[in-house]
UniProtKB/TrEMBL annotation:
Residue ranges constituting the ABC transporter domain according to the UniProt record: 26-254
GO MF annotations, alphabetized: ATP binding; ATP hydrolysis activity
InterPro entries reported for this sequence: AAA+_ATPase, ABC_transporter-like_ATP-bd, ABC_transporter-like_CS, ABC_transporter_ATP-bind, P-loop_NTPase
Keyword Hydrolase: no
Protein name per UniProt: NitT/TauT family transport system ATP-binding protein
Lineage of the organism: Bacteria, Pseudomonadati, Pseudomonadota, Betaproteobacteria, Burkholderiales
SMART domains in the record: AAA
Organism: Paracidovorax konjaci
Keyword ATP-binding: yes
Family membership: Belongs to the ABC transporter superfamily.
UniProt KW keywords: ATP-binding, Cell membrane, Membrane, Nucleotide-binding, Transport
Length: 275
């Protein structure tokens, strides 16, 4: 039988639907972190994320987005303020947490399905249930016929899908993504965004997504946090219907939201919290 993330880390629920809706899944209250000899990378941030929500972080390079992700994951500890997950301290990284970065970082000598199973293999010997879950993820992402191929046989978009399946194979409660689609062409990137939305909604995963692309943030996010100099300068709710469709990109509400985010980044509008 597979190891249950709830059993290993009891303070983190495995699915968003198991979390009381009245309590935030993730709450960052006045968190500050500075690297030695440098101004704070994160400076008094207050940020609340509901269970099952997808929050995007945007901002210019060096504004603290990646450091804030690391605080949320427990990879860094705030020097002041608190970071709480489901009302308690953030536990050590484990099956409750998934990562996906800009480069897929697949292992060329392992098959696609063995790459997906890597997080399991690092903890224990994969069981039939694990292989079933990995195979189901590959099927959901249109890669069922590539399970026994190797990464070098795949396109960039296919490799990105394998990385997403790998991040999801342990059914994490929280998924952190740091510009995972930045190197892809526009059409493949749009397809990957749809894959991400479908997969995370299906599994009830809470997602924090860093991007420099305003249209990507509006398309994916339930909320968008605009960061500037280590602070959340604007918190913008994305009132677009779900499921998202590519046609929305050409409609006025979508373009209005993109303009609001750009204005907040430029300091013209929205530099306070926006409900």
């Amino acid at each position: 039988m597979p190891t249950d993330p709830q059993a290993q880390v009891p303070q983190v629920q495995a699915r968003a639907d198991a979390v009381p809706s009245s309590a935030p899944f993730l709450e960052i209250d006045g968190a500050t972190f500075a690297y030695p000899g440098r101004p704070p990378a994160v400076d008094g941030v207050r940020w609340r994320v509901g269970a099952g929500e997808l929050h995007c972080l945007v901002g210019r390079s060096g504004c603290g987005k990646t450091t804030l992700l690391q605080l949320a994951a427990g990879l860094l500890r705030p020097q002041s303020g608190t970071v709480r997950l489901q009302g308690g301290p953030v536990p050590a990284p484990g099956p409750w947490l998934g990562f996906m970065f800009q480069a897929p970082t697949l292992l060329d000598w392992r098959s696609v399905i063995d790459n997906v199973l890597l997080p399991v293999s690092l903890q224990r010997r994969p069981q039939p249930r694990d292989v079933e879950r990995a195979s189901a993820l590959l099927e959901q992402l249109g890669l069922a016929g590539h399970a026994h191929h190797h990464p070098r046989q795949l396109s960039g978009g296919q490799q990105s899908r394998v990385a997403l399946a790998r991040a999801m194979v342990l059914e994490p409660a929280l998924l952190l993504l740091d510009e995972p689609f930045a190197a892809l062409d526009a059409i493949t990137r749009a397809d990957q965004q749809d894959d991400l939305l479908r997969t995370c909604r299906r599994h009830g995963t809470t997602v924090l997504f860093v991007t420099h692309d305003i249209t990507e943030a509006v398309y994916l996010g339930d909320r968008i946090a605009v960061m500037h100099a280590g602070r959340v300068a604007a918190d913008i709710r994305v009132d677009l219907p779900a499921p998202r469709t590519q046609a929305m990109r050409h409609e006025a509400p979508f373009n209005h939201l993109c303009a609001r985010v750009r204005a907040a980044m430029d300091g013209v509008d929205g530099m306070g919290a926006a409900a």
